[in-house]
Amino acid sequence: MMTKPLFDSFNAVSAKEWKQKIQFDLKGADYNEALIHKSFEGIDIKPFYHREDLPKNEISVQHPTHWKNMQQIEVDELQKANKTAIQAIANGAESIFFVIKNEQINPIELIKNITTDIYIDTIFLSPDYYQKLETIASKSKNKIYIVLDIIGHLTKTGNWHNSLKKDFDTLTLILREHKHLKKIISIDVDRYQNAGATMIQQLAYGLAHANEYLNYLSEKNIALENTSIIFKTAVGGNYFFEIAKLRALRILWNTLASEYEMLKKCYIFAQPSRRNKSILDYNVNMLRTTTECMSAILGGADLIANIRYDDIYNYDNDFGNRIAINQLLILKNESYFDIVSNPASGSYYIENLTNQLAEKALIVFKNIEKGGGFLTQLKSGKIQKKIKENADKEQQLFDQEKIIVIGVNKYRNKNEIDITPQKDLSTHKKIRKTLINPIITRRLCDHLEIK
Asked: For the whole model, what pTM was predicted?
């Protein structure tokens, strides 16, 4: 006996009919004033979403089915960093991301006994050091990636490593000469988020940042063998918006990459933001990083590195590292977040947010390109000014308790236990001469933590 599908018994209801029913139930109250909320990004959030809200010309974007749990390690002491990496793999990390701070670190000893993919970022630019890595990669069974972002170094420090020409010449050398190293051109969108940029700004600046590389590579006709683009992103606490942000990033990349016959696929490396983390009621940071990792997963990140709940005030420690990786392991192995392919697809709300963020970011990106491009606007200070304006606005809303950080500016723990930070929490920077004003990261809560 054939049975009719369950929902065939119900008549379809249009968005207009839903709205009319809601307006009737409001009993005269204004629909827009009562139920429409304008987000910080200038997007109107409606009380309900309908199939009619889906974009008419939806761009097909492939999202990864699985992600890799990554452990990021800043390398100050060689032996300690190697031991931390080995322990992280034993605890469940599927890849290691080293940030090497000086050329005296011996890369052979650093990666000794490590049995997984290794990503290496250096805060210096040294052809000799990369040649050492190339030699290691030619003999290693592991995949070794070198992460390069000379523009990111400029935004962080205000200076090139050497000069614009020398830095791009070194980048060209690495991309052309090293055949065994897997090269990654990294786009540091993380810094824009942690400095206080809106999601639209993050997407637009990340795209313009990437476009500087693509323009250069296209002009020099550089063959990108073993080379990938990775967007390094920070994920904040606005759960659904952050999911939509990462999805919008892939749409924008597809739009940009279609103009170039290279690097058609991008990868997203995500980690929780530090902007909303605090030393006050610090255990709540675990909840924040958990939901932020969930957003990264549902948004389609390829690599996710959680941060320790005590990351902002304590140095690397075994307990904090173990908790951070366990959060990701629970999401993967117990919550089964990697079972459903592209789980956010078909959500009218998220699809609508994704489309709006992508459209608004594309407008900002086009304005940057009309204004001479990302580097030109960095040099003039326009990018820095826009970010600061938004950061100041966000700070004001936080101080007015219109942006809530639980345990900090709302529901403060009266029995707060004082702790002695290992790290210096002061925001004062040494004054030094720079080519441009660097983009400075700052947490919303830092002024409330001063005793």
From this structure: 0.94
